[in-house]
Each structure stands twice: as C-alpha cells, then as structure tokens.
Design goal:
single chain, 313 residues, alpha+beta, Phosphorylase Kinase, domain 1, D-amino Acid Aminotransferase, Chain A, domain 1, 2 domains, 7-stranded antiparallel sheet, 7 helices
C-alpha cells in the first residue's frame, strides 16, 4: 500500500519506488517537481516479492545521496531537497521532473550475471566483442557500455547493441550517455576500492533538462531530434545494492559466483531447492523466510556503512 501524504498526490508506483506530485496551496499539481519515495519492496526475476526488506528504502536513499555528492563534478543530479513528509523521512527526496531517456544505461567492469550468459552464447555483450576464455567474475580489459531496453513493469529488459541506443536517442546523445555511464562506474570503482570493495557493474538512469515539449509532441521523437541540445541529469538512484553489484575484494575469485552485498543473495535463495520455486513456471515467488530477510537487510546496511564510512541510523 502506498501511503497518503498531505500536500502530495500519488502519481505512479514502480517495482520499488512511489512517485508523488506536490500540490500548491490551492491543491493544484506542481509539474516541475516530484517526491521520489523508495519503498522496502524488493524485485527479483521481474517479480515484486511479497516480503519487504526492512530499512531497504532508507539505505538506498541515503546511499544515493552520498554518491550524488561524489559524482557532482561528473554530472548534475535531480535532487532538490530532502525536506519531505515525516511519514517518509529518510527514504524520500524531492527531485526535479525530467524527461527520462528510454534506454537502460549499464556499464560493466567485471563479467557476471546476464552479461556472462550472453558472452557464453556468442562471445560478446550488447554487441561488444570480448576476449576468449573469460569466466564468471573475470575483470574485463576495460569497462564497457552494455545498454538494454527499458521494458514496462512485469517484462524483462533485453540487451541491445550501441547502435540500438543511437537509433533510439540519436548519435550525439548516445555518445554522451555512454561515456558518462562508464565514467560513473570508473569513479565508483575508484572510491569503492579504497573500502575493499569491487564494483562489478551498474545501471544508471538519465533524464534531460530543458527539452520543452510542444503540445501533443511525442517525447521519444523530441529526445531523438533535440536531446543532444539538452543538459543530461543523473536521476533515480545511483551505485546502490539494487542498481549495482558490489563484491568484497578479498573474496574475489574468478571462475565462480562471487559473494556480494546486493540482492543476488535473494536470487540465489529463490533458485535453490530450499524455496521450492521453479523460475520457469511463471508462478509468483514464495515469501522469503525470516533468516533470508534479516541477512539481506544486513548486506544492504553493510554495503552502505563500508562504502560511505557512516553508521546507518
């Protein structure tokens, strides 16, 4: 259930976030801002699980705010204020409303997950050819941009080659978001390495400032035609355990699945005999047991504390 918040109108709920539009004193919607609320919901294998992870929304919000500061010299972000209703304090921010790019921007420094499956099938990831002999956890020769489609909720994002991004948003804008995505991953790894953590891959969201749509103008057409003239803004979340894979550096061992601080722990339980769930069945996943919930929360908190150097409150 999404909470009712005085002064805000609920606008949309995604897998893990709820969006609200601010209201003015007369009760009219303000169209230049949004209240972005991170819930404790967790998604896995394109399902929103019935079992929430306590404090997850607060961890993701506080971690994103910390990373936005670390990345401020690379790209501006969408945060306006952390002055939010008490009911969602600590897990919500007031942000600028942007025209979001219709592609998922992903960068990889190590090979694992869906990228590994694609590499095993054809020796490349999102059209980027990779050397032979790589295994689960291999460090790539250099970070690569591996975009995907942005599928509606309940459907699966599919990898696309760089040319697919060019077709969607135009060549100049595609080049800029490719370079920014890889630069964010590189900066994240530079900082995480000082904390004994490897950042395997990450997904980031970008929006455009100043697109100024005409009446009834299709936003995708406008982005493709005029997006290169707009300012790119980092949005949503950044470098969190939901959007990235974090591995302890001292446990890194290519050739096997790495221990992690992200929701891979939940994925592993869901596909284990203990869950009794068949991923291919199409059925809803089962509720998570208490020990999995507690362990997942602990991993999120540990990631936050190790990376930021701050105690999670």
């Amino acid at each position: 259930m999404t909470p009712e918040l005085p002064g805000y109108a609920h606008e949309y709920s995604g897998k893990v976030r709820d969006l609200y539009a601010p209201l003015d004193d007369a009760g009219n919607l303000l169209y230049d801002q949004l209240l972005l609320v991170a819930s404790d919901r967790l998604s896995a294998y394109d399902f929103v699980l019935d079992t929430p992870i306590p404090d997850k929304g607060a961890v993701l919000t506080q971690m994103s705010l910390w990373w936005f500061d670390q990345l401020a010299d690379i790209v501006p972000n969408h945060v306006i204020s952390v002055d939010v209703p008490a009911a969602v304090a600590g897990r919500a921010v007031v942000v600028e409303r942007l025209d979001m790019l219709p592609v998922e921007c992903v960068a990889r420094a190590y090979l694992t997950g869906g990228g590994l499956s694609e590499y095993r099938a054809n020796g490349s990831v999102s059209g980027v050819a990779l050397p032979e002999g790589l295994v689960d956890g291999s460090r790539l020769p250099e970070p690569i941009f591996t975009p995907s489609t942005k599928a509606p909720m309940g459907q699966h994002d599919e990898p696309i080659p760089y040319e697919g991004v060019v077709a969607e948003i135009g060549p100049a804008l595609a080049e800029r978001v490719r370079d920014l995505t890889v630069e964010i991953l590189a900066r994240g790894n530079e900082i995480a390495a000082e904390r004994g953590i490897l950042l395997a891959d990450t997904k980031v969201e970008f929006g455009l400032r100043g697109l100024e749509l005409g009446q009834d103008e299709d936003v995708r057409v406008a982005i493709r035609e005029r997006g290169a003239d707009c300012e790119i803004v980092l949005a949503d979340e950044v470098l969190t355990p939901d959007s990235s894979r974090f591995w302890p550096a001292d446990g890194w061992e290519p050739g096997r699945q790495q221990p992690s601080f992200d929701k891979q722990f939940v994925r592993d339980w869901l596909t284990s005999p203990a869950s009794g769930w068949d991923k291919a069945s199409g059925d809803e996943p089962p509720a998570l047991p208490v020990e999995v919930v507690d362990a997942t929360r602990a991993k999120y908190v540990e990631a936050y504390e190790r990376i930021t150097g701050q105690t999670f409150a």
